[in-house]
């Protein structure tokens, strides 16, 4: 059972890679408005490395746990992506994997704990707050909606779909904000009217994960 779960983790990361590749150009263009334009390529490099590391961990050890697969994926993501978002995503993937640990099966409560660990890793490392116009503006509404749905008895796929919708709409709403953290800050005025790239990529990724897990 543990090996099958490891393969689920690998295929989830591959689904994340697909959506990043599909939106790479768009994310780069968004980051170019007030940032340095590398959000698409950075996310692509990070998630490519994460998929490769996850696959090699799973093939070197047929019994590889979700924990070890996500640890390898997150480490590779941080290392290869470069940039702020790469460090944040890599650290958060590692934290989610550590929260999941190595079990034979997972409950929806375990999924909620993983989301909480992912979210805390990002806010602890990046220190951004709601309204700073970062991915945190999509992440916290996602975490809250996910936790509420799970507490209300929703299965993981349903909770993810509901929470992803919250993240997507929160990401769009960052358009009206002025960036207070990260590289976009010096060109804050230019950013107004456009959503934060990291919030948009986060929304797209969790939306795809929701569809992947429901499928
Ligand atoms: P870089 O800014 O190093 O070029 P990216 O372009 O890949 O990295 O990522 C930019 C995104 O990172 C921003 O759109 C924002 O969502 C996110 N970000 C920047 N700083 C922080 C922070 N302190 N906390 C959370 N997210 C942040
Ligand atoms: Mg950038
Ligand atoms: Mg950069």
UniProtKB/TrEMBL annotation:
- Domain of life from the UniProt record: Bacteria
Q: Tell me where in this chain the DhaL domain is found.
A: 7-211
Name of the featured protein: Dihydroxyacetone kinase subunit L
Entire-sequence positions represented here: 357 to 571 of 580
């Amino acid at each position: 059972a543990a090996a099958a779960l490891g393969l689920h983790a690998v295929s989830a990361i591959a689904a994340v890679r697909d959506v990043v590749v599909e939106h790479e150009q768009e994310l780069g263009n968004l980051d170019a408005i007030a940032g340095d334009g590398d959000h698409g390529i950075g996310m692509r490099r990070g998630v490519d490395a994460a998929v490769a590391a996850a696959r090699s961990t799973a093939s070197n050890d047929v019994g590889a746990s979700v924990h070890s697969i996500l640890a390898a994926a997150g480490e590779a993501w941080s290392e290869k992506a470069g940039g702020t978002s790469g460090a944040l995503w890599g650290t958060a993937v590692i934290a989610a994997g550590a929260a999941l640990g190595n079990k034979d099966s997972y409950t929806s409560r375990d999924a909620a704990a993983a989301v909480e660990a992912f979210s805390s890793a990002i806010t602890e490392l990046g220190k951004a707050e709601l309204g700073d116009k970062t991915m945190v503006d999509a992440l916290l509404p996602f975490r809250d909606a996910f936790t509420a749905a799970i507490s209300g008895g929703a299965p993981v796929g349903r909770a993810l779909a509901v929470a992803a919708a919250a993240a997507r709409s929160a990401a769009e709403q960052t358009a009206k904000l002025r960036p207070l953290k990260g590289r976009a800050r010096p060109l804050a005025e230019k950013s107004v009217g456009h959503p934060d790239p990291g919030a948009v990529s986060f929304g797209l990724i969790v939306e795809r994960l929701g569809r992947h897990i429901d499928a």
